[in-house]
Task: inverse folding
């Protein structure tokens, strides 16, 4: 189903400054990136493009702030500043959301929600800033031993295009709470809202250089950040192949890395599940954000007795999702973020058709939307779990539904994947709930709900989905070094083995 209303038709806007060392500076090359509004296919913004020299300047600024004013801030004051940033984001939620919707095509009602949630994330980490304790260790009766959790240093935060504001708060919150400074590298497709975050950082009163924003291409600005000798840590969200390149570049100075990569998340429905609840969560879990999220339910496994009924019902609901313009409040899902992304989705739809999977709904472009990178929500049944459609991350609105016969087979199918980010099962059997939750190879498993992504809950991948954890207090660990301090309290002269 498609809906159409006008998107804003403003002339292209210019964001021709980078945010470095608390100032708005032109890119050294003078080059600009064009960003396309994926709902209209028009250029909507021209953004300053950072290259290696600009990244170098940003890292210098971050380094100076780390050793200078930021180091003198008490943890409580750091937390206050993070909370102030959250407050400003809430104040300017509409502006931020509009920028993100223009950049990546998500419905405004989604981006408005994301900005509010991003602020919640910052508030959580603001509160954590003065609760980052080391441990006292009972090493010897005549010694005092303890650990200090110290900032890692300058953090390079490299972000994807699908949820820039959310994912930026996932990184900024814990990194700043732990006393690090940050160079943010937005995705080249979606830099605008993060430049706006730079403006709010400035308004909140952070010292110059604590947060820097350098939009640029991955192979230039991203690669420079990953290889930079004075960056101590890379926190990356994106594709696992990019993570592998970053790991190589980061090896020069043994940077700490954490990677949040893709997923092919299993959603297992047992015959004893509450059918209606499992159904109503399934469709949103598979198609929200036009399928462009790493944690969506892209493989639904259904126990044979209810398989046909469930697959048909999912397809029926999917066919009623309203695909439309991001600024139309009736819209459920918008376009793909880019022409490349739509081409990729369509290639998987072709693969599905050729593989003999049963197309239940979708598979084409929606009517009434002649421009924009739209594709219909698409459901295939009887997909072979070994096929590319079931194994590879589509990152589009394409769902595979498959049957299983028993618990062992469900677990085997779920785990037969290179990814391991999120998994979920639906059952009314408590023993099975715990058994299967324990056996699914994923960093976040849910029972009778799906994808409970929340600032309190550690989140991250197994296997190709990455390593390291974001969210929850575990995220703080990713941004701290443990220093062990031992103080000898003894009065007796230490023995000198060399004196004998
Ligand atoms: P991508 O890996 O192509 O790009 C991500 C970022 O890396 C961009 O900023 C890009 O400019 C930069 N980059 C590219 N090449 C680089 C290089 N050589 N060195 C340094 N940086 C480089 O990913 P994408 O297409 O923007 O995003 C989609 C992917 O992100 C999907 O695989 C998706 O699953 C994943 N993702 C994961 C999560 C998560 O939390 N696990 C969340 C969102 C997206």
Result:
């Amino acid at each position: 189903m498609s809906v159409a209303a006008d998107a804003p038709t403003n002339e292209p806007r210019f964001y021709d400054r980078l945010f470095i060392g608390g100032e708005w500076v032109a890119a050294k090359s003078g080059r600009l990136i064009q960003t396309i509004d994926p709902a209209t296919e028009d250029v909507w913004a021209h953004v300053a493009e950072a290259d290696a020299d600009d990244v170098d300047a940003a890292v210098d600024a971050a380094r100076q702030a780390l050793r200078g004013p930021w180091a003198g801030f008490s943890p409580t004051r750091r937390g206050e500043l993070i909370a102030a940033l959250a407050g400003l984001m809430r104040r300017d939620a509409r502006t931020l959301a509009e920028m993100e919707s223009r950049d990546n095509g998500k419905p405004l009602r989604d981006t408005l929600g994301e900005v509010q949630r991003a602020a919640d994330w910052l508030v959580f980490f603001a509160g954590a800033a003065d609760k980052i304790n080391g441990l006292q260790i009972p090493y010897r009766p005549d010694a005092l031993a303890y650990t200090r959790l110290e900032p890692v240093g300058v953090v390079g935060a490299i972000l994807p295009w699908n949820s820039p504001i959310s994912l930026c708060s996932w990184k900024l919150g814990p990194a700043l709470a732990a006393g690090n400074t940050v160079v943010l590298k937005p995705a080249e497709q979606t830099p605008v809202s993060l430049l706006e975050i730079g403006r709010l950082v400035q308004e909140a009163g952070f010292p110059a250089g604590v947060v820097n924003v350098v939009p640029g291409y991955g192979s230039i600005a991203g690669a420079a950040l990953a290889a930079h000798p004075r960056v101590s840590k890379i926190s990356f969200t994106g594709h696992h192949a990019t993570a592998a390149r970053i790991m190589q570049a980061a090896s020069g100075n043994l940077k700490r890395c954490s990677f949040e990569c893709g997923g092919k998340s299993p959603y297992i429905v047992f015959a004893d599940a509450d059918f209606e609840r499992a159904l109503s969560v399934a469709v949103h879990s598979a198609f929200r954000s036009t399928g462009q999220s790493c944690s969506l339910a892209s493989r639904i496994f259904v126990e044979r007795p209810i398989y046909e009924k469930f697959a048909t019902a999912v397809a029926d609901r999917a066919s009623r999702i309203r695909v439309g313009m991001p600024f139309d409040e009736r819209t459920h899902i918008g376009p793909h973020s880019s022409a490349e992304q739509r081409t990729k989705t369509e290639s998987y739809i072709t693969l599905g058709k050729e593989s003999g999977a049963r197309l239940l709904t979708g598979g084409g472009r929606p009517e009434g939307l002649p421009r924009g990178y739209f594709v219909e929500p698409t459901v295939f049944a009887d997909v072979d779990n070994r096929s590319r459609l079931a194994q590879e991350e589509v990152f589009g609105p394409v769902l595979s539904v498959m049957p299983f016969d028993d618990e062992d087979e469900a677990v085997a199918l779920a785990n037969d994947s290179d990814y391991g980010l999120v998994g979920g099962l639906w059952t009314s059997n408590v023993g099975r709930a715990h058994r299967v939750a324990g056996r699914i190879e994923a960093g976040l498993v849910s029972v009778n709900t799906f994808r409970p992504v929340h600032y309190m809950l550690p989140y991250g991948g197994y296997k190709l989905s990455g390593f390291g954890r974001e969210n929850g207090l575990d995220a703080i660990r990713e941004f701290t070094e443990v220093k062990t301090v031992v103080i000898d309290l003894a009065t007796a002269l230490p023995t000198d083995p060399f004196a004998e």
Notes: Residues 158-162, 185, 187-188, 218-219, 222-223, 226, 237-239, 242, 245-246, 260-263, 294, 393, 395, 421 surround nicotinamide-adenine-dinucleotide (CB under 6 Å). The longest strand covers residues 143-151. The chain has a mean pLDDT of 97.
